[in-house]
Specification:
Blueprint lengths: L11 H23 L5 H21 L1 H19 L5 H37 L5
Amino acid sequence: MTAPQVETVSTNADKTRLIAAGLLLLGGLVAFYLLSAQGPYAQWAALLLLLGAAVAAFFGSEPGKELIAYGRESVKEFYKVVWPTRKEAGQMTGYVFAFVVVMALFLWMTDKTLEWVLYDLILGWKR
C-alpha cells in the first residue's frame, strides 16, 4: 500500500495573506508596547484589532481553510467514538488499580530477594 501523495499548492495570494497575517500579528504586539503611554484601553484595542485582522487574513488563505476543514472532520470523528459506560469505565479503572498493586508487590519482592541474595549470601554483609 502506498502512502497518499500530499500536494501543496501555494499561490501568490495565499503567500501574501500569510505574510500579511504574520505582519499584522507582529504589528499588534508592537502596537501594544508602543501605546503604553495612551493607557491600557488603547493598548488592548490595538492588540485585539490587529490580532483579529491577522486571524481573518490567515483563515482567508488556503492553509486556514484547510485548518477549518480539519477541525470539522475532527468533530465528526469525535461523534463517531463509542464511549464506555460508567460501569465499564469503573471496571477498567479497578483492573488498572489491581494490576498496579500486583506489580508493586512483585517488584518489591524481587527487590528484597535480590537484596538478600547480593548482600547476605554473596557479599556476606550482615546488617
